[in-house]
Specification:
It contains 17 helices and 9 strands. It has helices at 3-11, 67-70, 108-118, 135-163, 168-180, 182-195, 198-202, 208-218, 229-245, 266-279, 283-289, 293-298, 328-349, 353-365, 372-379, 387-401, 410-415; strands at residues 19-20, 26-31, 34-35, 43-50, 53-64, 82-89, 99-101, 311-313, 316-317. The strands form 2 sheets. Strands 1, 2, 3, 4, 5, 6 and 7 form a 7-stranded mixed β-sheet that branches. The longest helix is centred in the middle third of the chain and has 29 residues, at 135-163. The protein is elongated.
């Protein structure tokens, strides 16, 4: 018997009504309380009638009563307000806390269904059943998953804001850089944003060569000699700027090119972000004050200078000649991963629901993403129509399905009754 299953029974009021303590006192559950994910008892703010008295406080849950001592709760003052100990097996009577034994107090078919889910060999436990769940149930659960996903992003962004002294532009710049690098280079791009601060770049917006030299120089791409004029000029300018501002240089080995399409090489991406920074001052403020997704897309609608028409790296001419632009899919991924969380957090931190709603509305306007997770759900019968739903279901897959948190999932709650 796992504690998670007892949490499920308790939270969803799936225990029988004829409950009593080990001392024979009648138990009536007025409120099961709220699940506590921090230190202390498992449920807080519960209200329970035991005998003739109404108690308010905490509920602690264990598979065995002796776990109270095994987990050293008797030495922890944060458990002093426990009003009921809920256990599956009663293997000790040394507690002075009212105790409820649930061993014969629930429908055992629920437990068998739960074990069946855990032992499933499908790509997710409910992979062969989820397609039969009503659309309304799926959509309402995905609404909750997206909000939970964005609220978790708020915690990370708040830490970043604190470290940046609540500079929203610098924090957005770091977030933008991380997701500009795609998954394979996101750590390197984020590190580059930390050693090359936005305010230094903006001080030189009138000289695009300076901005490009600082980006490529700090990234480590200017540490050798060049035959071509353009990278030679970048190297010359960076040598001066590095000495003037004490700039750091990354090891070039940090950058990954393997298995990337040439248009996604970090050199091309760095050139693109350099141009975006050059032509856009106070970028987050522009995005925050806009109400039009298409206007935001236009901020990233840039073409690189002609040097890059036949280059993907310095000193290497490509036989293929074409303009290097950010495609709509690439721009939308930046909006999904960088802009939406920042807008949502701005609304969250300033108690402005309109910004949170705007962030989610942008996701509703963006086409559904396409990856192996989305395709697997499609094969299981779940059709997703926009990025709002794909972001939600990818979060669900990562934090619920893969971790077998079925008991906390509304979809499981429906399927367990089949």
């Amino acid at each position: 018997m796992k504690e998670e299953f007892i949490y499920y029974l308790w939270e969803n009021r799936l225990l029988s009504l004829d409950l009593e303590t080990t001392d024979g006192e009648e138990i009536k559950i007025i409120s099961v309380g709220n699940r506590n994910y921090n230190s202390g008892a498992d449920f807080i703010n519960a209200r329970i009638k035991i005998g003739g008295a109404l108690w308010a406080g905490q509920v602690e849950i264990h598979s065995r009563a002796s776990d109270w001592f095994k987990h050293n709760h008797h030495l922890d003052d944060s458990y002093n307000n426990v009003i009921l100990h809920v256990v599956y097996e009663y293997d000790t009577n040394n507690l002075n806390i009212p105790t409820l034994i649930i061993k014969d107090k629930f429908d055992t078919s629920l437990f068998h269904n739960y074990n069946r889910f855990l032992s499933s060999r499908n790509w997710i436990p409910c992979g062969d059943l989820i397609g039969g769940v009503q659309d309304f149930t799926i959509i309402s659960w995905l609404d909750r998953m997206l909000v939970e996903h964005l609220e978790n992003e708020c915690k990370d962004l708040d830490n970043k804001l604190r470290s940046n002294h609540y500079d929203w532009e610098q924090t957005f710049y770091q977030r933008l850089m991380r997701y500009f690098g795609l998954k394979v280079n996101n750590e390197s791009f984020e590190y580059l944003s930390r050693i090359l601060p936005l305010n230094l770049l903006l001080r030189h917006r009138d000289n695009k060569l300076y901005i490009e030299s600082m980006f490529f120089g700090c990234a480590g791409f200017l540490e050798k000699e060049f035959d071509e004029e353009y990278p030679s000029l970048l190297k010359r300018d960076f040598s001066m700027l590095k000495a003037k501002f004490g700039l750091k240089v990354m090891p070039i080995s940090n950058w990954k090119f393997l298995r990337l399409r040439p248009p996604n090489f970090p050199t091309i991406r760095i050139a693109q972000i350099a141009k975006i920074i050059t032509i856009n001052e106070n970028m987050f403020s522009k995005i925050r004050d806009s109400n039009d997704l298409e206007d935001i897309r236009q901020l990233f609608n840039i073409e690189l200078d002609s040097y890059w028409d036949n280059h993907f790296q310095f000193n290497k001419t490509s036989k293929e000649e074409r303009r290097k632009i950010l495609g709509k899919t690439a721009i939308d991924l930046i909006i999904i991963n960088a802009i939406v969380p920042m807008l949502f957090h701005y609304g969250h931190s300033h108690s402005l629901e309109s910004y949170k709603e705007k962030a989610m509305s942008y996701l509703e306007q963006i086409e559904a993403e396409d990856n192996i997770i989305i395709r697997n759900f499609r094969e299981s019968g779940i059709i997703l129509h926009n990025a709002f739903q794909t972001q939600a279901i990818m979060y669900m897959h990562k934090y619920y399905c893969k971790r077998r948190r079925c008991l906390e999932c509304r979809i499981y709650h429906i399927l367990s009754k089949y």
